[in-house]
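Same chain as my last thread, 220 residues:
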Amino acid sequence: MEKYRILCFGDSLTWGFDPEKRNRISEEKRWTGVLQNLLGDTCKVIEEGQNGRTIATEDPAEGEKNGIKYIIPCIESQKPLDLMILMLGSNDLKRKFSYSSMDIAGEMQLFLEKVQAYNHFRMNDQMKILLIAPPVIGENGKDSWLEDCFDFARARKVSAELSGWYQQLADMYHCYFLDAAKVVKTSPADGVHLDPDNQTMLGKAIYEKLLDERISEIIK
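reply #2:
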């Protein structure tokens, strides 16, 4: 039996950035690794997280971070794919972009249009999508090492508004939807990233979502 292939496309929350140690959380505690362990040998979880990745914005200070430019080459290099788990938007909250929640949702709409067009015309609609609204930016990030990157009061407000927009986009583009803010909280160490315990909780929540939606007959 061929393995059910799941592409996890995201930013540092998917890469597994440790907010306290500032390195990478171990594979078994990253949400992608937790999901792989729960799914077992019938599925292949493919990690495609990049620190600093935006949805569709060029970042002149950090370089090649634009997700919409990389997503189709990524899909082509990893297919066949049965499911893409998509969680982006946290980096679009950075101070230098000054985006509203509507702006970020507009980026995500362009992203989903591009992916679903490719999925329809090149993959016969084989790939399902689980869209995840990222966790809300923390209250305690003001004094963290990321304070220069984020206006934390504004970022928290805007990030809290994303789930409503993402839910609408999921309905429009026939995606499954999960609001990460309902299951995890960002670490007080930097207000943005998930500690190992919250990474584990997110992996379990995604697994339960796959079960609830019966996204594949392979997923028991």
